[in-house]
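User: I want to check something. If I give you two sequences, will you return the structure for each one separately, not as a complex?

Assistant: Yes, each is folded on its own. Here is the first sequence with its structure:
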Amino acid sequence: MPGFTVILILRLLLLNPMNITVAIVEDQPETREMLCFLINSSDGYTCVATFQNAEDAIAGIPEYAPDVALVDIHLPEQSGIWVVQQLKDACPTTHFVMCTSLEDTTMIFAALQAGAVGYLLTSTPPDKILEAITDAHSGGAPMSSTIARKVVASFNLKRPQSTELEKLTAREREILELLSKGFRYKEIAGGLQVSIETVRKHIHNIYQKLQVTSRTDALNKVK
């Protein structure tokens, strides 16, 4: 009775709609609890685990194998970008979406290069966060509109290079830009997935090439 079988399957699907499992990696308790409540109080979504640091996330996410993981970038010790980089191959069925307050273009591209499929701001309205989770689970690449515009603008923007900047490598210019935005060495290291010592070496090289001895002098020289 093939017709009956089809009807039965359709009824079962209606009674048991798809449930998307979600893990949250966020060190701020208020934000973590808000996201967890939003997900668990919405039909079709379940928050299976929350983590407040990178180490716990690395250990726990493979065990839960969630459909989607919302990951903050600013975490104690290691960054959320490092978490994605470490888990991308270990959790092939999990779609990683950054959920952060950072709007810096360098961090956006670092996250996407690490394996994130989307990038949301924590200020995103709740309904849009749920839409983004569904989109990521369906194979999409959700981004807050502000982030999407920055990505597009980065491809269209053609800034003239000063002769001073031309002395620097692409990585050195990247680090100098992050310094200009107030990022600390630890944050730069986490975002670019390198050690703090590597960041220090790059900055030393920047100072030598620009013939300066401080961050302020280096930034003033390439204005």
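And separately, the second sequence with its own structure:
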Amino acid sequence: DDFQLGNLSHRLGYQVVLSPYIVEHILAKVKLIDLFDRQIRWARVVKVERFWGYLGLIFTQGTVTSLVFLFLTHFSIYGQLVVLITWSIRLLMAYIIGEILFKDSLTKKHLIWIFLRDIFDFIVWTIGFFGNSIQWRGQRFKLIGNGRLVIVN
């Protein structure tokens, strides 16, 4: 796990730096359930390692939280304005990062999917709170303190 590698290196007195290089890769076709299991695994690992940081991720969930706000305000003009501003900024941020910063030519083509991905991420984040077991390479594990895994039979 990236966090554990960086954290343990830092504790030993080494400096942890991010590479200035962008690694390009092509994702293999995967089943939706496998993608979901992987995302849940990552979410639960983060939750176990840094619970308060995981809880703080609610502030990165603008797409969904703005919709919740819209419902709570009974579709008021203020609620609609919050959704419009939040979603516009979200699209702009995705465009700037994907198209301008990373020069990814597919960004514009897939930009509209960002909202479905945000909803998917919110569902994963929510489910990540419940339970401490994960599926990894066909085996079930229980997460315990410090990011350690115990095989579940």
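Because they were folded independently, the notes below concern the second chain alone. The two ends are 23 Å apart (CA to CA). The longest strand covers residues 139-144.
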